[in-house]
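Consider the following assembly input.
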Amino acid sequence: MGYVAVKGGQDAIDNAAELVEYYRWRERPQPIETTQVRSQFRLLIDKVMGEGSLYSPEHAALALQQVEGDVFEAAFILRAYRATLQRRFYSDTLNTRDMFVQRRISSAFREIPGGQVLGPTRDYTQRLLDPSLARDTPGIDAFLGEFESRIDRTKLRGVTSFSKVIDLLMSEGLMRRDQYTDEDRRVVDITREAIKFPAPRSARLQMLARAETGGLMCIGYSTMRGYGESHQTVGELRMGTVPVRITDQSGRKRYIGRIKVTEAEMIGRVAVKKKGALPLLSVGYGLCFGQNETKVICMGMLDSALRNPNVNSPGNNQEFVLYHTEGVESYGFTNHLKLPHYVTFQAGLHNLRDVVDRAEKQRGVRAAEFAAVAAAAAATPKPRL
Amino acid sequence: MAHELSYDPILHSQRHFRSLLDSMSRPGTINELSAVDLTPPPGLNRASVLVAFALLNADVQFHLVGMTEQEAAYLTTNTGSSHATEVAGAAFVFTAGHEPPALLEEINCGTLTYPDTAATIVIQVEAMAQEPSADGLILTLQGPGIDGRTSVWVRGLSPDLLLALQARNAEFPLGIDALVTCDGGGEGSARVLGIPRTCQVTWEVC
Amino acid sequence: MVEDVKFRASYNFAFIDESTKKEVRRKILKAVCIPGYQVPYSSPEMPISRGWGTGGLHLTLSLIGPRDVFKIIDQGSDASVNACSLRQFVKRMTGCEVTFDTAAATLIQSRHRVPEEILTDKQILVLQVPQPEVLRGVERYEFKTRQMHAEADYAKIWVSLYEAYVRFGTMMRGSGYPIRVNGRYIATPSPIPRWDVPNLSMAHCLYLFGAGREKRIHCIPPYTKVEPLEFEDVLFHVEAFPGIRCAASGEDNAFLDEIYDDEGTRKFVINDSNFLDKVRSGPRPSQRLFTNPD
C-alpha cells in the first residue's frame, strides 16, 4: 500500500478554528454586546483581570467573549496582550488607607473603628437556584427606583476612608513593622527578569497576586488542614477603589485614575526560633485587582507560610507554591501533552523493547540451563534406595 | 546631543546583532557591521557605537574608560542606558586596547551560580585583519566555535590587556567576554571580532 | 463606551518589543560564551501557550530579519499542526520567506528533532525545550540544581544512570539524553532521540535552546565537544533499526517513525519529512551517521 505523506496541517488548523465559530453561531443566538459582559459578569472579569495581570475591564470582557467564557484562555489573552504594551512608568505605591471603601470587615474584633461594613456580598445569601432574576428593563428600573428612594442623602457621612485594624495592634505593641529585618527586601519585577530562588518577598507577592485563584485556594486550604500553619484570622478584608499615581519625568506626581482592589491582612504568629523571643503577631498580606476575596485570603495565608520555609509542607515551600499556581504556565504545560510526542514516545519504546529482549534472552538462557541440568540428571543413573 | 536619526532601531539592530552573534559563536571571524550614516563622538569608533546601539537599553549600564561626558551622553541619548560610575555595575565596558589593564580587576566576572551576569568588554583597536600587515599582534585562537585553530591580526591591543583578560578568565565559568572593534578600511566601515571567555588566546608580536 | 480604536492592534516587526529583543539578544550572547549553561531570561508571555514553543519563538523572533528564510518542524515534520500554527505566526509578524527545504533555510526552529541533513555554518537551529534543567529529574528544587551546576556536582545524575542500568540493563533515556558540553556543564539536548545527539558535537551550525515556560536559554556553539554521558563499560548507543527499511522510500540509515496503517499493520517511515521528500525524488542529502560501539 502506498504511503501518502500527510501535508494538510495548515488546512486542518484553519478548519478547526472555523469549526469553533460554527459551533458558536449555528443556532443563531442573539449576539451579546461586550458592554453587557462588562456589566453583568463583573466578578468573572475581576478574576480574569487579576490572573491576566492587566487592569482593564473592557479588555477582560472582550477576551471572555472571544473565548466563550474559558477563564484560562481569557487570562492568557490578557497576559499576552499586556506583553505587547509599552511600559512607561511604575506607579507610586498604592496606599490602601486612601481606599474609597465599599466593603470592610474584620474577624479579629467584634467592633472596630468605623464599624463592620458588609458592603456588596453574597456571603449571607442562600445558594438556591433562582429563576426569577430581574430580566427586563421595567423590572430593573422598578428595583433601582425603589432602592434609590430609600437612600437618605442627608445621612451620607463624609467619612469614606477607614483606618486599619492592624494599626490598633501595632500601637499596642503586639505587632511590629520591623519583625522580618533579615528578609530580602529588594523590589524586583518578575515580568522583566526570571524569578530566582530563594525569591525576595516582592517577587513572591507579585507571583501570588497574578496566580490562578483555584490553585491558591487549593494550597491555601491545605495549610489550614495540617499541611502547614494553623488557622489565621482575617485582621481586615477590604474592597474598594484606590487612587493610582505616577511620578513623571519632571518629578511631578500625577493622578491617573482609580482601580478597584481587594485587600486582606491575615493575622498569624511570627515563628520564633530564639529562646525568650516573643511570638508576636504577623501579617500575611494579600492584594489583587477587582473583587476576589478568596484570592486575597489565600494569598495572605501563603505570604505568611512562605516566610517560614519548610520543604515538608507544600504551602511553606516557595518553589512549589509559586511555580505551580502560575496559571498561564500550568495551563500551557498540562495541555501541551496534546501535542504530538511520537518521537519521544518511540524513543522510549526502543528502550523498553531492549529491556524486554534482554529479559527474554536471560529467561531463554536460564531455560536452557535448567534443561541442561534436567537432561544431565535424567542421564545420570539414580541410586537405588 | 546627536540623536542618530539614520539608525533604524529595528532593522539595523537586528542585522548587527546577527553579526555580533556570528562573531561570538565563531571567535576569530572578523565581521563587518553593515554601514549606517552616523557621527560618533571622538572617543568611540563606529563599530563600538553600533555594538552599543544593538545591545544597550535602560535595563543595563555601561562604563567608559578614558572617555568624556560627550561619549557618555551620546550613548545615553541614543540607547536609554546610563553610565555606571562604578565599573563593577556595568554590563558593558568600553575601553581602548592600549589602556592599562588595572581596570580589568574591577569588571564584573559573574558568580558561580550566575556566570551570565558577567560584563562584556568592548576593546577598541586601531586595525584588524585576517592576514597581518604592519606591526601589531598575531592572535591564535582555540576553543568552542573554532575548527582547530584560527589566527587574526590586530594593531592597538596591548599584550598586558590580553594577559589581564586571561587571568580573569582563568576560572571558568567566571570570566569576561570581549568584543574587539575598529573602524575598517573603507568609508563607514565597522569591524568586530569576538573573544568569549571560553577562548584560549596566544599571541606573538609582529 | 468602548471605541473600536482601542482594540486595533498593529504589531512590531517580529511581534516582540525592541526592549525585550535586546534583553534576549544579550542573554543569547552570554549563552554562547558559557556553553551548556542555562541563562535566565524574562520570557514574556506570547500569544502561544506555554509549553507549546514560546521559548523557541523568543529566540527565533529575536534573531530573525526580513531576509531570513525560516523553516519550522515539530517531531521532524513541517506539516505538523503546531508547526503550522507557529509558522503562520512568524510569517504574519515578519513577512519572511518560509520553506520546507532544510538546505534553503537560514533559521530553523524545531521541536524534538535535529534535521537529518547536515546543517552548515550559515544556519542556526533553535530547539524548543520543555524542561531545560537536566537535573530536575533527580533534584526538584531550582536553588539546589543551580548550586549543583555551579560546583559541577553531578553525582546525582550519574547515580541515576547507573541505577537505571543496574535495574533495567540500559540507561533508560530514550529521548533527552544528558550531555556534557565543552567538558563542563551537563545539559539537556531537549527531547531529541539519541539518534540526533551525535550531531550536536563539533557541528558547523549554531544550536540555541529556548525554554519559555521555565525561562532559560542555553547554547552549543559550533565546533564544541558534546559528549553523551556514558560509562567506560556501558557506552552510548543510538537507536537501531535492524533489517528495517522505510516503507515509503526503501531507504535505511535514518530515524524512522513507527506507524500503523488502516489495516493495523506496523510500518516504518523516515521521520524527517523533508529528508524523506528528498530521498524519494533525488540524491540523498549528506548526513552524519554514528556507528554504535559493539
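The first helix of chain C runs from residue 18 to 33. Ask yourself how this observation constrains the way the partners meet.
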